[in-house]
Amino acid sequence: MARAKKPKERRGVGDGSITEIVKDEYYLLRWFEPDAVTDKKHQRSRHLHGTERQANDELRRILVAVQEGKCQPCSSRMTLTELADEYLAYVAKANKKRTYYSYGDTLRKHVLPTLRHVPASKITPKQVRDLLAAKEKEPQPSKKKTPGKNDLVKFYSERTIEYIQVVLHAMFEYAIDLKYLEENPAGLKKSFAVNLVDPDDPDELDGDDEDDVPIWTREQFLSFHEHARDDYFYPAYCIAATQGKRRGEVLGIKWPRVDLDTGKIFIKMAVQRFPHEGIQPCSLKDRRKEKGKNSNKRKASFIVLGPEVLALLRQHWEKQQEIKEAMGDRYQDEGWVFCREDGKPYDPKTCSKHFKKICEKAGLPPKTTLHHLRHNFTTYMQDFYLSLRKVQELDGHADVQTTRGYDHDTFERQKNAALAMEGRIFPESPHSPSEP
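RESULT FIELD:
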Protein backbone atom coordinates (compact mmCIF):
# COMPACT_ATOMS: atom_id res chain seq x y z
CA MET A 1 0.00 0.00 0.00
CA ALA A 2 1.42 3.36 -1.06
CA ARG A 3 2.39 5.62 1.77
CA ALA A 4 0.68 9.02 1.77
CA LYS A 5 3.03 11.92 1.16
CA LYS A 6 3.56 14.22 4.04
CA PRO A 7 2.18 17.65 3.11
CA LYS A 8 4.93 20.17 2.48
CA GLU A 9 5.20 22.68 5.28
CA ARG A 10 4.33 26.14 4.00
CA ARG A 11 6.29 29.11 5.15
CA GLY A 12 4.51 31.77 7.10
CA VAL A 13 5.04 35.33 8.17
CA GLY A 14 8.44 35.71 9.81
CA ASP A 15 10.10 32.89 7.83
CA GLY A 16 12.98 33.51 5.45
CA SER A 17 15.68 31.92 3.34
CA ILE A 18 19.05 32.70 1.80
CA THR A 19 20.12 31.61 -1.69
CA GLU A 20 23.81 31.69 -2.49
CA ILE A 21 24.44 33.11 -5.98
CA VAL A 22 28.19 33.74 -5.69
CA LYS A 23 29.88 32.41 -2.55
CA ASP A 24 30.83 35.18 -0.12
CA GLU A 25 29.91 37.80 -2.75
CA TYR A 26 26.25 37.77 -3.77
CA TYR A 27 23.15 36.41 -1.97
CA LEU A 28 19.36 36.49 -2.46
CA LEU A 29 17.31 37.01 0.70
CA ARG A 30 13.63 35.98 0.80
CA TRP A 31 11.12 36.39 3.59
CA PHE A 32 7.38 36.67 4.23
CA GLU A 33 5.57 39.53 5.87
CA PRO A 34 1.93 40.71 6.10
CA ASP A 35 0.61 43.00 3.39
CA ALA A 36 0.14 46.56 4.64
CA VAL A 37 -3.38 46.72 3.18
CA THR A 38 -4.89 43.20 3.18
CA ASP A 39 -2.88 41.62 6.04
CA LYS A 40 -2.28 38.60 3.79
CA LYS A 41 1.27 37.29 3.72
CA HIS A 42 3.40 38.04 0.71
CA GLN A 43 6.95 37.26 -0.20
CA ARG A 44 9.62 39.89 -0.47
CA SER A 45 13.18 39.55 -1.64
CA ARG A 46 16.38 41.53 -1.72
CA HIS A 47 19.81 41.05 -3.21
CA LEU A 48 22.81 41.57 -0.97
CA HIS A 49 26.43 42.02 -1.96
CA GLY A 50 28.56 40.71 0.89
CA THR A 51 29.69 37.64 2.82
CA GLU A 52 27.54 34.75 4.03
CA ARG A 53 27.75 36.05 7.57
CA GLN A 54 26.52 39.49 6.49
CA ALA A 55 23.64 37.84 4.63
CA ASN A 56 22.63 35.87 7.77
CA ASP A 57 22.88 38.98 9.93
CA GLU A 58 20.77 40.99 7.48
CA LEU A 59 18.06 38.31 7.25
CA ARG A 60 18.00 37.94 11.04
CA ARG A 61 17.55 41.70 11.41
CA ILE A 62 14.72 41.67 8.87
CA LEU A 63 12.86 38.79 10.54
CA VAL A 64 13.09 40.42 13.97
CA ALA A 65 11.64 43.62 12.55
CA VAL A 66 8.81 41.67 10.89
CA GLN A 67 7.98 39.77 14.08
CA GLU A 68 7.88 43.01 16.08
CA GLY A 69 5.67 44.64 13.46
CA LYS A 70 8.12 47.45 12.94
CA CYS A 71 8.81 49.25 9.70
CA GLN A 72 11.32 47.30 7.65
CA PRO A 73 14.03 49.81 6.73
CA CYS A 74 16.11 49.62 3.57
CA SER A 75 19.21 47.53 3.71
CA SER A 76 22.21 49.69 4.49
CA ARG A 77 23.63 48.49 1.17
CA MET A 78 20.57 49.42 -0.93
CA THR A 79 21.60 52.50 -2.89
CA LEU A 80 19.33 55.14 -4.34
CA THR A 81 20.08 53.70 -7.78
CA GLU A 82 18.73 50.28 -6.71
CA LEU A 83 15.62 51.89 -5.20
CA ALA A 84 15.08 53.91 -8.40
CA ASP A 85 15.38 50.77 -10.55
CA GLU A 86 12.86 48.94 -8.39
CA TYR A 87 10.45 51.87 -8.38
CA LEU A 88 10.64 52.36 -12.16
CA ALA A 89 10.04 48.64 -12.65
CA TYR A 90 6.87 49.02 -10.55
CA VAL A 91 5.75 52.03 -12.61
CA ALA A 92 6.39 50.16 -15.89
CA LYS A 93 4.50 47.10 -14.63
CA ALA A 94 1.51 49.29 -13.80
CA ASN A 95 1.36 50.31 -17.52
CA LYS A 96 2.11 53.94 -16.69
CA LYS A 97 4.08 54.41 -19.88
CA ARG A 98 4.21 58.19 -19.99
CA THR A 99 4.93 58.37 -16.27
CA TYR A 100 7.62 55.71 -16.63
CA TYR A 101 9.54 57.60 -19.29
CA SER A 102 9.08 60.97 -17.61
CA TYR A 103 10.10 59.80 -14.13
CA GLY A 104 12.98 57.71 -15.47
CA ASP A 105 14.45 60.60 -17.47
CA THR A 106 14.12 62.93 -14.48
CA LEU A 107 15.86 60.55 -12.08
CA ARG A 108 18.66 59.65 -14.49
CA LYS A 109 19.26 63.23 -15.58
CA HIS A 110 18.86 65.22 -12.38
CA VAL A 111 19.09 62.93 -9.32
CA LEU A 112 21.24 59.85 -9.82
CA PRO A 113 24.37 61.64 -11.09
CA THR A 114 24.63 63.29 -7.65
CA LEU A 115 23.16 60.69 -5.25
CA ARG A 116 23.80 57.49 -7.22
CA HIS A 117 25.81 55.63 -4.55
CA VAL A 118 24.16 57.08 -1.43
CA PRO A 119 22.24 54.43 0.58
CA ALA A 120 18.50 55.08 0.25
CA SER A 121 18.03 54.80 4.01
CA LYS A 122 20.62 57.54 4.55
CA ILE A 123 19.03 60.20 2.31
CA THR A 124 18.15 63.24 4.41
CA PRO A 125 15.85 66.23 3.74
CA LYS A 126 18.97 68.42 3.68
CA GLN A 127 20.47 66.40 0.82
CA VAL A 128 17.24 66.78 -1.17
CA ARG A 129 17.17 70.54 -0.51
CA ASP A 130 20.82 70.86 -1.51
CA LEU A 131 20.16 68.93 -4.71
CA LEU A 132 17.24 71.18 -5.69
CA ALA A 133 19.19 74.33 -4.79
CA ALA A 134 22.09 73.18 -6.99
CA LYS A 135 19.69 72.52 -9.86
CA GLU A 136 18.36 76.08 -9.64
CA LYS A 137 21.86 77.40 -10.35
CA GLU A 138 22.78 74.77 -12.93
CA PRO A 139 22.57 75.97 -16.56
CA GLN A 140 20.60 73.85 -19.02
CA PRO A 141 22.71 72.01 -21.61
CA SER A 142 22.57 73.69 -25.00
CA LYS A 143 20.55 71.93 -27.70
CA LYS A 144 23.00 73.16 -30.34
CA LYS A 145 25.90 70.93 -31.32
CA THR A 146 28.24 73.93 -31.36
CA PRO A 147 26.80 76.70 -29.14
CA GLY A 148 27.95 80.22 -29.98
CA LYS A 149 29.67 82.59 -27.62
CA ASN A 150 26.73 85.02 -27.64
CA ASP A 151 24.08 82.40 -26.86
CA LEU A 152 22.15 83.18 -23.67
CA VAL A 153 22.61 80.77 -20.79
CA LYS A 154 19.27 79.26 -19.73
CA PHE A 155 18.61 77.91 -16.27
CA TYR A 156 16.02 75.34 -15.21
CA SER A 157 12.61 76.86 -14.49
CA GLU A 158 10.92 76.68 -11.13
CA ARG A 159 8.44 74.23 -12.62
CA THR A 160 11.27 71.84 -13.51
CA ILE A 161 12.67 72.05 -9.98
CA GLU A 162 9.21 71.33 -8.59
CA TYR A 163 8.85 68.34 -10.88
CA ILE A 164 12.15 66.86 -9.69
CA GLN A 165 10.86 67.03 -6.13
CA VAL A 166 7.52 65.54 -7.18
CA VAL A 167 9.31 62.52 -8.69
CA LEU A 168 11.52 62.07 -5.61
CA HIS A 169 8.49 62.35 -3.34
CA ALA A 170 6.60 59.68 -5.34
CA MET A 171 9.58 57.30 -5.24
CA PHE A 172 10.06 57.67 -1.49
CA GLU A 173 6.31 57.23 -0.91
CA TYR A 174 6.63 53.92 -2.75
CA ALA A 175 9.49 52.97 -0.40
CA ILE A 176 7.37 53.88 2.63
CA ASP A 177 4.45 51.77 1.37
CA LEU A 178 6.80 48.78 1.16
CA LYS A 179 8.17 49.60 4.63
CA TYR A 180 11.63 50.37 3.27
CA LEU A 181 11.60 53.80 4.92
CA GLU A 182 9.80 55.45 7.80
CA GLU A 183 9.78 59.06 6.57
CA ASN A 184 9.80 60.83 3.23
CA PRO A 185 12.89 63.06 2.91
CA ALA A 186 11.38 64.85 -0.10
CA GLY A 187 8.31 66.35 1.56
CA LEU A 188 6.28 68.47 -0.86
CA LYS A 189 5.49 72.12 -0.32
CA LYS A 190 1.79 72.94 -0.53
CA SER A 191 2.37 75.03 -3.64
CA PHE A 192 4.11 72.10 -5.30
CA ALA A 193 1.08 69.87 -4.85
CA VAL A 194 -1.22 72.31 -6.65
CA ASN A 195 0.39 72.30 -10.07
CA LEU A 196 1.74 68.79 -10.58
CA VAL A 197 2.82 68.10 -14.13
CA ASP A 198 0.56 65.67 -15.92
CA PRO A 199 2.76 63.02 -17.53
CA ASP A 200 -0.01 62.32 -20.05
CA ASP A 201 0.40 65.83 -21.43
CA PRO A 202 3.98 66.35 -22.65
CA ASP A 203 3.28 69.99 -23.49
CA GLU A 204 3.22 70.63 -19.74
CA LEU A 205 6.84 69.55 -19.46
CA ASP A 206 7.77 72.20 -22.01
CA GLY A 207 5.76 74.90 -20.28
CA ASP A 208 7.03 77.79 -18.22
CA ASP A 209 6.31 78.90 -14.72
CA GLU A 210 2.72 79.59 -13.78
CA ASP A 211 3.31 83.36 -13.82
CA ASP A 212 4.51 83.17 -17.43
CA VAL A 213 1.33 81.57 -18.82
CA PRO A 214 -0.09 84.01 -21.40
CA ILE A 215 -3.85 84.52 -21.24
CA TRP A 216 -4.87 85.92 -24.61
CA THR A 217 -7.03 88.99 -25.10
CA ARG A 218 -9.74 89.17 -27.76
CA GLU A 219 -7.36 91.06 -30.07
CA GLN A 220 -4.72 88.34 -29.68
CA PHE A 221 -7.24 85.62 -30.53
CA LEU A 222 -8.23 87.57 -33.67
CA SER A 223 -4.57 87.91 -34.66
CA PHE A 224 -4.08 84.17 -34.20
CA HIS A 225 -7.11 83.35 -36.38
CA GLU A 226 -5.86 85.65 -39.11
CA HIS A 227 -2.50 83.87 -39.34
CA ALA A 228 -3.74 80.31 -38.71
CA ARG A 229 -6.59 79.96 -41.21
CA ASP A 230 -4.45 78.33 -43.89
CA ASP A 231 -2.72 75.87 -41.55
CA TYR A 232 -3.70 72.20 -41.75
CA PHE A 233 -4.18 72.01 -37.96
CA TYR A 234 -6.37 75.12 -37.74
CA PRO A 235 -9.55 73.11 -36.91
CA ALA A 236 -7.56 71.20 -34.28
CA TYR A 237 -6.44 74.43 -32.63
CA CYS A 238 -10.03 75.69 -32.59
CA ILE A 239 -11.26 72.47 -30.96
CA ALA A 240 -8.50 72.68 -28.34
CA ALA A 241 -9.28 76.34 -27.60
CA THR A 242 -13.07 76.00 -27.39
CA GLN A 243 -13.19 72.61 -25.62
CA GLY A 244 -10.06 72.69 -23.45
CA LYS A 245 -8.84 69.30 -24.68
CA ARG A 246 -5.28 68.08 -24.68
CA ARG A 247 -3.19 67.96 -27.83
CA GLY A 248 -3.16 64.15 -27.91
CA GLU A 249 -6.92 63.94 -27.34
CA VAL A 250 -7.67 66.26 -30.27
CA LEU A 251 -5.33 64.31 -32.57
CA GLY A 252 -6.99 61.10 -31.36
CA ILE A 253 -10.43 62.00 -32.78
CA LYS A 254 -11.72 59.57 -35.44
CA TRP A 255 -14.40 60.21 -38.06
CA PRO A 256 -16.69 57.32 -36.99
CA ARG A 257 -17.10 59.11 -33.64
CA VAL A 258 -17.89 62.51 -35.23
CA ASP A 259 -21.44 63.65 -36.03
CA LEU A 260 -21.06 66.42 -38.62
CA ASP A 261 -24.77 67.27 -38.32
CA THR A 262 -24.99 67.92 -34.57
CA GLY A 263 -21.31 68.61 -33.77
CA LYS A 264 -21.18 65.84 -31.16
CA ILE A 265 -17.79 64.09 -30.89
CA PHE A 266 -16.87 61.16 -28.67
CA ILE A 267 -13.25 61.25 -27.48
CA LYS A 268 -11.97 57.78 -26.65
CA MET A 269 -8.38 57.90 -27.90
CA ALA A 270 -5.27 60.04 -27.55
CA VAL A 271 -2.24 60.04 -29.85
CA GLN A 272 1.08 60.10 -28.04
CA ARG A 273 4.75 59.66 -28.89
CA PHE A 274 6.80 57.41 -26.63
CA PRO A 275 10.61 57.25 -26.56
CA HIS A 276 11.97 54.26 -28.50
CA GLU A 277 8.41 53.26 -29.47
CA GLY A 278 7.26 56.02 -31.80
CA ILE A 279 3.70 57.29 -32.26
CA GLN A 280 0.99 55.20 -30.63
CA PRO A 281 -2.72 55.68 -30.01
CA CYS A 282 -3.68 55.31 -26.37
CA SER A 283 -7.13 54.45 -25.07
CA LEU A 284 -8.49 56.87 -22.48
CA LYS A 285 -9.72 53.81 -20.60
CA ASP A 286 -6.08 52.70 -20.19
CA ARG A 287 -5.14 56.16 -19.01
CA ARG A 288 -7.97 56.04 -16.47
CA LYS A 289 -6.54 52.76 -15.21
CA GLU A 290 -3.25 54.47 -14.55
CA LYS A 291 -4.87 57.15 -12.39
CA GLY A 292 -6.51 54.73 -9.93
CA LYS A 293 -9.34 55.88 -7.67
CA ASN A 294 -9.32 59.56 -8.68
CA SER A 295 -9.64 58.81 -12.37
CA ASN A 296 -13.39 59.22 -12.75
CA LYS A 297 -12.89 62.63 -14.33
CA ARG A 298 -10.65 61.16 -17.03
CA LYS A 299 -13.24 58.82 -18.53
CA ALA A 300 -13.96 58.76 -22.25
CA SER A 301 -16.26 61.71 -22.87
CA PHE A 302 -18.01 63.63 -25.62
CA ILE A 303 -17.87 67.27 -26.66
CA VAL A 304 -20.26 69.42 -28.68
CA LEU A 305 -18.82 71.88 -31.19
CA GLY A 306 -20.28 75.29 -31.90
CA PRO A 307 -21.40 76.23 -35.43
CA GLU A 308 -18.17 78.07 -36.36
CA VAL A 309 -15.84 75.19 -35.45
CA LEU A 310 -18.25 72.64 -36.92
CA ALA A 311 -18.16 74.46 -40.26
CA LEU A 312 -14.35 74.32 -40.19
CA LEU A 313 -14.46 70.59 -39.51
CA ARG A 314 -16.82 69.99 -42.47
CA GLN A 315 -14.40 71.84 -44.75
CA HIS A 316 -11.56 69.77 -43.33
CA TRP A 317 -13.48 66.56 -44.15
CA GLU A 318 -14.01 67.65 -47.75
CA LYS A 319 -10.30 68.40 -48.21
CA GLN A 320 -9.41 65.02 -46.74
CA GLN A 321 -11.68 63.25 -49.24
CA GLU A 322 -9.81 64.95 -52.07
CA ILE A 323 -6.48 63.77 -50.63
CA LYS A 324 -7.80 60.21 -50.32
CA GLU A 325 -8.81 60.15 -53.98
CA ALA A 326 -5.45 61.55 -55.06
CA MET A 327 -3.48 59.04 -52.97
CA GLY A 328 -5.50 56.01 -54.04
CA ASP A 329 -4.16 52.72 -52.67
CA ARG A 330 -1.33 54.51 -50.90
CA TYR A 331 -3.84 56.00 -48.43
CA GLN A 332 -4.27 53.84 -45.31
CA ASP A 333 -7.68 54.80 -44.01
CA GLU A 334 -7.64 54.35 -40.24
CA GLY A 335 -10.35 56.93 -39.62
CA TRP A 336 -8.16 59.70 -38.15
CA VAL A 337 -9.53 63.23 -38.47
CA PHE A 338 -6.04 64.75 -38.40
CA CYS A 339 -3.55 62.61 -40.28
CA ARG A 340 -0.72 62.67 -42.78
CA GLU A 341 -1.28 62.33 -46.53
CA ASP A 342 -0.95 58.54 -46.22
CA GLY A 343 -3.65 58.36 -43.51
CA LYS A 344 -1.30 57.67 -40.60
CA PRO A 345 -1.60 59.80 -37.41
CA TYR A 346 0.60 62.87 -37.05
CA ASP A 347 3.40 63.18 -34.54
CA PRO A 348 1.96 65.45 -31.79
CA LYS A 349 5.17 67.50 -31.85
CA THR A 350 4.47 68.44 -35.47
CA CYS A 351 1.19 70.01 -34.37
CA SER A 352 3.00 71.98 -31.64
CA LYS A 353 5.71 73.21 -34.05
CA HIS A 354 3.05 74.54 -36.47
CA PHE A 355 1.35 76.29 -33.56
CA LYS A 356 4.60 77.89 -32.40
CA LYS A 357 5.35 79.29 -35.88
CA ILE A 358 1.85 80.75 -36.16
CA CYS A 359 2.20 82.46 -32.77
CA GLU A 360 5.51 84.02 -33.85
CA LYS A 361 3.94 85.39 -37.05
CA ALA A 362 0.93 86.70 -35.14
CA GLY A 363 3.13 88.58 -32.67
CA LEU A 364 1.87 86.61 -29.68
CA PRO A 365 3.95 86.17 -26.48
CA PRO A 366 7.09 84.17 -27.34
CA LYS A 367 6.57 81.68 -24.49
CA THR A 368 3.16 80.58 -25.77
CA THR A 369 2.71 76.81 -26.22
CA LEU A 370 -0.22 74.77 -27.47
CA HIS A 371 -0.84 73.59 -23.93
CA HIS A 372 -1.54 77.18 -22.87
CA LEU A 373 -4.86 77.00 -24.74
CA ARG A 374 -6.04 74.78 -21.88
CA HIS A 375 -5.08 77.49 -19.40
CA ASN A 376 -7.02 80.05 -21.47
CA PHE A 377 -10.03 77.74 -21.61
CA THR A 378 -10.06 77.18 -17.84
CA THR A 379 -9.62 80.89 -17.07
CA TYR A 380 -12.45 82.04 -19.35
CA MET A 381 -14.77 79.24 -18.22
CA GLN A 382 -14.38 80.62 -14.69
CA ASP A 383 -15.31 84.07 -16.02
CA PHE A 384 -18.49 82.52 -17.46
CA TYR A 385 -19.41 81.60 -13.85
CA LEU A 386 -19.14 77.85 -14.30
CA SER A 387 -18.46 76.02 -11.04
CA LEU A 388 -14.93 74.84 -10.40
CA ARG A 389 -16.13 71.22 -10.35
CA LYS A 390 -17.74 71.63 -13.77
CA VAL A 391 -14.57 73.17 -15.20
CA GLN A 392 -12.59 70.30 -13.67
CA GLU A 393 -14.85 67.84 -15.48
CA LEU A 394 -14.45 69.70 -18.79
CA ASP A 395 -10.67 69.81 -18.38
CA GLY A 396 -10.51 66.14 -17.46
CA HIS A 397 -8.45 66.75 -14.32
CA ALA A 398 -8.39 64.04 -11.67
CA ASP A 399 -7.71 66.60 -8.92
CA VAL A 400 -9.55 69.89 -8.51
CA GLN A 401 -6.32 71.44 -7.20
CA THR A 402 -4.83 71.03 -10.68
CA THR A 403 -7.78 72.91 -12.15
CA ARG A 404 -7.21 75.77 -9.71
CA GLY A 405 -3.65 76.02 -11.00
CA TYR A 406 -4.99 76.56 -14.54
CA ASP A 407 -7.04 79.60 -13.53
CA HIS A 408 -5.23 82.95 -13.95
CA ASP A 409 -6.13 86.55 -13.20
CA THR A 410 -6.72 88.75 -16.25
CA PHE A 411 -6.91 92.50 -16.79
CA GLU A 412 -10.60 92.27 -17.72
CA ARG A 413 -11.41 90.28 -14.58
CA GLN A 414 -9.67 92.80 -12.31
CA LYS A 415 -11.28 95.73 -14.11
CA ASN A 416 -14.79 94.25 -13.87
CA ALA A 417 -14.25 93.66 -10.15
CA ALA A 418 -13.16 97.27 -9.66
CA LEU A 419 -16.19 98.60 -11.61
CA ALA A 420 -18.55 96.41 -9.60
CA MET A 421 -17.19 97.76 -6.32
CA GLU A 422 -17.31 101.35 -7.57
CA GLY A 423 -20.96 100.82 -8.41
CA ARG A 424 -21.57 99.84 -4.78
CA ILE A 425 -19.46 102.56 -3.17
CA PHE A 426 -20.36 105.52 -5.43
CA PRO A 427 -24.15 105.80 -5.90
CA GLU A 428 -23.82 108.22 -8.85
CA SER A 429 -21.54 105.85 -10.78
CA PRO A 430 -23.02 104.51 -14.07
CA HIS A 431 -22.13 101.06 -12.77
CA SER A 432 -24.27 101.50 -9.67
CA PRO A 433 -27.00 98.80 -9.40
CA SER A 434 -30.59 99.98 -9.92
CA GLU A 435 -31.74 98.19 -6.77
CA PRO A 436 -30.08 98.53 -3.32
